From TrEMBL, chain A:
It comes from the Bacteria. This is Nitrate/sulfonate/bicarbonate ABC transporter ATP-binding protein. The keyword tRNA-binding does not apply. Residues 13-244 form the ABC transporter domain. It comes from Novosphingobium olei. The keyword Iron does not apply. Pfam families: AAA_assoc_C, ABC_tran.
TrEMBL record, chain B:
Belongs to the binding-protein-dependent transport system permease family. Gene3D superfamilies: MetI-like. Residues 71-265, 381-567 form the ABC transmembrane type-1 domain. GO terms for cellular component: plasma membrane. This is ABC transporter permease subunit. The keyword Phosphoprotein does not apply. The chain crosses the membrane at residues 71-97, 109-130, 218-237, 244-261, 300-320, 341-362, 374-404, 416-438, 444-466, 487-507, 549-568. The keyword Transit peptide does not apply. It is a multi-pass membrane protein. Keywords: Membrane, Transmembrane, Transmembrane helix, Transport. It is found in: Cell membrane. It comes from the Bacteria.
Amino acid sequence: MATLSASAPLVEVRGLNHFYGPPPGGHLVLDQVDLTLARNEIVGLLGRSGSGKSTLLRLIAGLIQPREGSVTLVPSEDCPDPNVAMVFQTFALFPWLTVLENVELGLEAMKVPAAERRSRALGAIDLIGLDGFENAYPKELSGGMRQRVGLARALVVNPSLLLMDEPFSALDVLTAETLRTDLLDLWSEGRMPIQSILLVTHNIEEAVLMCDRILVFSSNPGRVVAEIKVDLPRPRDRLDPPFRALVDDIYARMTAKPQSAQPARDGLFPGTGIAMVLPRVSTNALAGLMEEVDGTPFDGRASMAELADSLQLEVDELFPMAETLQLLRFAELNGADLLLTPAARRYVQADVDQRKAMFASALLNHVPLAQHIRRILDERIAHRAPARRFRDELEDHMSEDFADETLRTVTHWGRYAEIFSFDEDDDLFSLENPE
Amino acid sequence: MSPDKNPARPLPAFSRMLRLTKPNREDGIAFVILGSIALLFFRGAEGVIAPLSTLHLEPVTLDPAYLPYYALRTVIRMFAALLASTVFTLVVATLAARSRRAGQIIVPALDILQSVPILGFLTFTVTFFMGLFPGNVLGVELAAIFAIFTSQAWNMAFSFYQSLRSIPADLEEVTRSFALSPLRRFFRLELPFGTPALVWNAMMSMSGGWFFVVASEAITVGNTTVTLPGIGSWLAIAIQNKNFGAIGLAVAMMALVIVAYDQLFFRPIVAWADRFRFEQTASGDRPRSWVYDLLRRTRLLPLILAPFNGLIDLLLALEPRRRRAPTDRTARKPNQWFERMWQAAVLGAVCWMIWLSGHFILSSLGLADIALAFGLACLTMVRVIVLIALASLVWVPIGVWIGLNPVWAERLQPVAQFLAAFPANVLFPVFVVVIVHWHLSPDIWLSPLMILGTQWYILFNVIAGASAIPTDLREAARMFGVKRWQWWRQVALPGVFPYFVTGALTASGGSWNASIVAEAVTWGDRHLAAHGLGSYIAAATTAGDYPRVALGIGVMSLFVLSFNRLVWRPLYAYAERRLRLS
């Protein structure tokens, strides 16, 4: 059983800054991250995409070098040479190697003699419940079985620290749950040769179920905004009231407005004015979410945790949608609850044309970039403007990828609302209505 | 080349395997096949290192009894070139993918070499290799092998480089997190990942190589004429003697050889390489080969692979033990100064080479020569454009039709492949006879020769594209009664367009290259030449006029490169963006 604190640190991360793009400059993805991993704990990194949590994992794994700051694996008496191994979201198995050969890969690189290699690999395969599949090729296995191979491959090199990058998110719900339970059993029984686990996830329930400590990351740039200790006894029950309370609490923390002085109602997107980064959220998904919250049993008010459950959405998908609704004044995030505004409830009852008109006015009133594009088009005599112009403008404030995504999003919303049209071939915005 | 280390059927020790497994019928068949291949190889190799005078003592004759021997020599040449290309590919492409600095030089170099007319180089290489081994056949052999090599190596290396660049990031991260040594990473990840594309490319390159074997075995440079024993020389002599029967025999022999190495060599390798295909789900139809099945049944396969695996294991065992990644991951500053020095050195070298070649050409040629070369290049360009357009008009509808009929596609695929492998230069005499007989203008009627060998790329790719049109799209089109022109405009043509561009790009590059042999053709004492850059280079080669050859090659490379950049690349980008069905 894991014990918290009072144990020697395993990994120390100090003053870590990391950028994407060539030095000097680039886009800041991790901002002043400090982190200490103790022995015998499972720590979760929770955040939405773009929060740099996977990057942090790779920095600790030594797969990338930090631009500023340090990551140190701390040696101790019983472990003079600490090492790490990683489990990947996509399994990352070599399709031309059998299960056994895949598991032996790391040992082979360490030049472990063949006989020992085989017995250790067979031991790991046995431990993880894969016996009988030793000579199968990955393509013959189901997703869950493949991830077990990934786990065995990581465990067989006796890592001090096991890094897991969203290890269950590519699996279906049932398989993922079985794998989680099996992993937790092995951990509690102390049968894995590891001292700690660092788990990246964007599934809040998964984090609460598995971790002793959860670090919540903000996005753009990634920063640790909260540290939550999970003291619930193991094995944990998802339906346990304290479990639910903690999940709701984390939802609330993740929807909380950042401390910095931003216009309160601009939601949680980084940047202000036209420099606001807009997530790719489809208008259909927004309408669907509003209809869901408007209907029974929510009747206009739903807790994010329940919504995530009933819609089978992960944080990564649900949060941008909820926040977009907030930006458009169709909803309000109140603690861990999503509250529809009267406008949204009218929207749900409206027909297609009325919906479009409502969406258009919300867009023009509350999304500065949409406003900006429309104003430029109105001002110009030909009512046309190259998209390049806006892309350049956005790139002054954000990275190229974000600029591209933001412009795509606003194009999609604007087309739906019919406040402007866009021709991809000519890369041109205009006010013409295609017949 | 990962071994067949199937733990369910562990590899027995060598001696035990020989004693304990009783040979079966398949063993006998396989032994006979492998034994005769080895015997043939040594028989052919004897002739390679003979003194040069033997070429005059035993000149190539049109005696049918010798034809199999000539074919053997040609095949050995081709496989030697293929081996050299493969080694070149593995070393150079890996270097380019691993080191950013090396890549900066290698990638553009490969890109340019791919579009340079290889045949124009024969002049330089023959002289060079003959100087390397004076008085020995080996020098001329190497020159011929090098000619084939230059037709294969660049695109093989380029495709392998592209495979290496598309290795999934997660697999790369696995090898790095386990600190696999560069060598082990190569054998465990890079080589297996690149193998299917490499094998496919080698197969296509082998087909292309025939064209150059025919052109390079009998070559005249200035006043030296060399005739290596081989099918190419046989053809050259048959053309000189106006012997249609001999040409027919050579064609039949070639057909036999092409079928033989396809069945005995490439099919088994394709079937074997299928295991390296990067896919996470098992696909339905896997490539099959009777030879591969035979070898598998005889348990000879581990025996054949054993030397390769042994070599790999030895290499891996010999490399020093590496330290794991350091536990301290503090930020480090890259060396900016060294980077700048490197950039400056590359730039300097490029400038120096441009100056050097400019100096070489301009020292003996004037602006008028350059203007002439450009004018002729424009003529050849018109030919290429018209021919590609005509070939597209013919082959796109046929390719679409074949591609949409799976039964016919399966039946015709090997035929098309065979036709592509078939060196078009064999047909040149027929055209000469026709042109001379009807007093046609060579400027027009020699042109089709340029595309004879390369049109198949268009057909291949269109077939592939048409069979890749999703069934649901075709069903939707049928349900809404989309027919005739609308069907072509909105279903078939957009569907095959990305594939067509790939095929047309290859075909146009190949046609430029072929113009060197196609614009100047001989039948006995009849010489026909069309006005164009190809015949310009051919004439300069025969005259041993090196500055003109260099000028011709330079101008042609320039045209091909700009053609690729200004026409094909934008079309390709458009197709990728708008029409790729995925």
